[in-house]
Amino acid sequence: MDATRVVLRPELFAAPPTVAEALLAAPSSAGVTAAELARQHAEGLVVDVDGNPVDLSATVLRAVPVYLYRDLPEEFDVPFEMEILHVDESLVVVDKPHFLATMPRGRHVTQTALVRLRRLLDSPDLAPAHRLDRLTAGVLLFTRRPAERAAYQRLFAERLARKEYRAIAPLPTATSGADTLTLPELVEGVRVENRIVKTAGDLRALVVDGPANAVSDVTLERVRPDGLGEYRLVPHTGRTHQLRLHMAGLGVPILDDPLYPEVDADLAAAPDRGDFSRPLRLIASSLAFADPITGAERRFESRRT
């Protein structure tokens, strides 16, 4: 396992904290005790981005990353397979299941796509080129060669990769909300543009006033026999929980979303009890791009339904 990257956030404290205080309070270092932190520090394992040991008593005045190691937490096995869609010398593309995080963070370590794939392929240099939320399933791209990683990551940073999602959600009703559109409008397709912010420590992202930084196209593709709608979602930006917020804002929240439009605390906590029976009905259905190394057009599609 790689070291855990912990971003120290002094703005979350009433007064500037020490490095030790900020480390122990950070969600991504959950499970690390003061004694364990002191032990790792004594062994030179708590370092900055350049690999230099940090001073635990120093005051943190701005957000900075620190690296340390965590003992593996107890985790429930996510009982779904992760299909490999494509392998070559540069890339591995998988069909990630619901509930499996992309990479270790917080209390999710072994039950992540990265750890599963590194173990399966015996390939410690594997790294994700982008991320999917833990609750979202679908196409996920990993790089195999460190020297090529930045080129593939730029595809996502610069919005050159073309992504589509499928979601299952209710049909619009007259009482769904102020921003609800009619069924014909959603069949025609609508664009949602607003400003989304995500604050550290808050589970939910929020729509706020200001210039738009989140843009999605939403189209109702078909009405299912069970009366629910199957939607095609095309994000043009990549804000946290963007598609989930945009669907909820249209009055058609994605089925089994534990956070939007309102928090369902029991559903949100279900995976941590080992209950994986109600996945968020959102799938990253396709990913397409011009390969930055070979120039070839690439397209990968999820086989999940």
User: DSSP strand (E) fraction?
Assistant: 25-35%
CATH class of the largest domain: Alpha Beta
* Contiguous runs where pLDDT drops below 50 for at least 5 residues: none
Order of helices and strands: EHHEEEHEEHEHEEEEHHEE
Rg from Cα = 21 Å
Q: What is the mean predicted local confidence, pLDDT?
A: 91
Structural class: alpha+beta
The CATH topology annotation of the largest domain reads as Pseudouridine synthase
Let me know the number of strands. Answer: 13
Structural description of this entry:
There is one protein chain. The protein is an alpha+beta fold. The chain has helices spanning 19-25, 34-42, 113-121, 146-157, 183-188, 242-249, 265-269; strands spanning 4-8, 64-68, 83-87, 91-96, 127-128, 137-143, 162-169, 190-198, 205-208, 214-223, 229-235, 282-290, 297-301. A hairpin with a 3-residue loop joins strand 3 and strand 4 (91-96). The protein is globular. The model has no long low-confidence stretch (mean pLDDT 91).
A few lines on this structure:
The protein is α+β, with helices and mostly antiparallel strands and 305 residues long. The chain is built from seven helices and 13 strands.
Helix-strand blueprint:
Elements: E1 4-8, H1 19-25, H2 34-42, E2 64-68, E3 83-87, E4 91-96, H3 113-121, E5 127-128, E6 137-143, H4 146-157, E7 162-169, H5 183-188, E8 190-198, E9 205-208, E10 214-223, E11 229-235, H6 242-249, H7 265-269, E12 282-290, E13 297-301
Parallel strand pairs: 6-12
Antiparallel strand pairs: 1-2, 3-4, 4-6, 5-6, 7-11, 7-12, 8-9, 8-10, 10-11, 12-13
